[in-house]
Amino acid sequence: MAAARRAGVTVVYATDAHTPNDSELRKWPPHAMAGTWNAEIVPGLAPQPGDVVIGKQTYSPFLNPAFERALVERGITRLYVTGLHTDCCARHASGDAFQRGYDLVWVTDGLEAFTEDAHRAGLEYFKAWYATDPARQLRTVDELVEEWSGVGEPIAA
Prior knowledge:
Layout lengths: L1 H5 L5 E5 L35 E5 L8 H9 L4 E7 L4 H11 L3 E10 L3 H14 L4 H4 E2 L1 H8 L9
Parallel strand pairs: 1-2, 3-4, 4-5
């Protein structure tokens, strides 16, 4: 994330911040309830000045109008997709982003699922349905850091 910030990439968090009436809670038990520690971003990934934090109430953050508004206001057209779960939230967010014309890059080792098989299935789904240039769009953290290292300040060792 530090390399992204140095390269001028806006870091956007779409975090679970559920309310008791969220439709997702019909399927899953209450989790990451807004205002509780379970909905907080872990200290190692803490937002920095200039980052954007938007709560989401279901799998895709695009169902919260504030999310896309934040992207548009900042001129963001490329999304580097990370987080949980490759085969669920990342999949739904990617579908919504693809339909809206965003350029998508999936950070393959920055995504996670309940199982390795589910993670791999999610990545294959992105390749099959949304990627127009898989070699450019499915990248590792190290590949992106290397790409971004030529932009802005050098990365400290």
